[in-house]
Design brief:
This protein is of the alpha+beta class. The chain has helices at residues 2-15, 21-24, 27-30, 43-49, 96-108, 264-268, and strands at 78-81, 131-136, 141-146, 153-157, 174-180, 183-189, 209-216, 221-229, 238-247.
Length: 285
């Protein structure tokens, strides 16, 4: 199965015309080995998710495969982020125009996700209230649900298909997945430019190709790693990631992103004397 998964990945990558020895030699190794026990999370979501004592091993099904959600018979749980910056901007291989755009985005706070826009890649995993991962073996698909924010879901096809020749660009793109050991790999292409793929605004174009790896290291912890390749924006691919914490007995709940949406204040601010926010426009992107 490991050799088959690499064949699927290599075929998918060749279809979108990626270059570079790291991708051609097997993009699963490009992400590097799991870093080990994730760091303790910080912030509100992390404090809610922190375990009371030593973590138990990651749950497995009857065949020994890692389960990304709750054990059969248990209530579902959610994955919430700790510190969730994909990469230090100093280490990102920006093209000059992309660095200028990234710097501009630090002054405007015009993030589409906070305006209820679905956002693919790592941004989905740091949505408010966390995400729920549902594996449906009978459909050969994995679904990743946003709990808050856009309140949408993403589909990962696990049936061995490749990316189609003509993909209609979308916020989530087209995702295919496979297992290698205890890690779920997700290969995605076909993004549009209507969202930010991470919270601080790293730019991308429709040529973005993303490889994600989810490794559940214990009952309470999961490592998220992602390789970003967009030759129109960056001079070479780069890898980053963060850690997620499991919040058991939490389920998807009704949430309307537009209801009590205070994101308007991120654009226009509360205090007219505050000049750190650009108030020249309140247009929702």
């Amino acid at each position: 199965m490991r050799g088959q998964s690499r064949f699927v990945a290599a075929a998918a990558l060749s279809m979108v015309g990626l270059a570079g020895a790291a991708w051609a030699q097997g993009n699963s190794e490009f992400l590097g080995p799991p870093r080990g026990q994730p760091q303790q999370p910080q912030g509100r979501a992390g404090r809610q998710a922190a375990p009371a004592g030593p973590s138990e091993p990651a749950p497995r099904d009857s065949s020994g495969k890692i389960i990304l959600g709750a054990r059969p018979g248990e209530r579902m749980g959610l994955w919430a982020p700790g510190p969730a910056q994909v990469a230090n901007p100093k280490d990102v291989p920006f093209q000059p125009w992309a660095k200028a755009l990234y710097d501009y985005r630090q002054t405007t706070e015009l993030e589409p996700h906070s305006r209820c826009k679905a956002s693919g890649g790592p941004r989905q995993f740091v949505t408010p209230y966390g995400v729920e991962i549902v594996e449906m073996a009978e459909l050969q698909r994995v679904f990743i649900f946003d709990i808050g924010g856009p309140h949408t879901f993403r589909t990962v096809y696990m049936d061995g298909r490749s990316h189609p020749d003509n993909i209609a660009p979308s916020n989530y793109g087209h995702s295919i997945g496979w297992w290698e050991g205890d890690s779920l790999f997700i290969d995605t292409v076909g993004f549009n430019e209507d969202f930010w793929f991470e919270r601080r605004g790293l730019p991308h174009t429709e040529s973005l190709h993303m490889l994600e790896r989810l490794t559940r290291t214990s009952k309470d912890a999961m490592e998220y790693r992602v390789t970003i390749d967009d030759p129109a924006v960056y001079t070479k691919p780069f890898t980053g990631g963060f850690d997620l914490r499991f919040r058991p007995n939490n389920e998807l709940f009704e949430y309307v992103c537009q209801q009590a949406n205070y994101a308007h204040e991120l654009m226009v601010g509360r205090d007219a004397k505050d000049t750190t926010i650009d108030r020249s426009s309140v247009i929702v992107p």
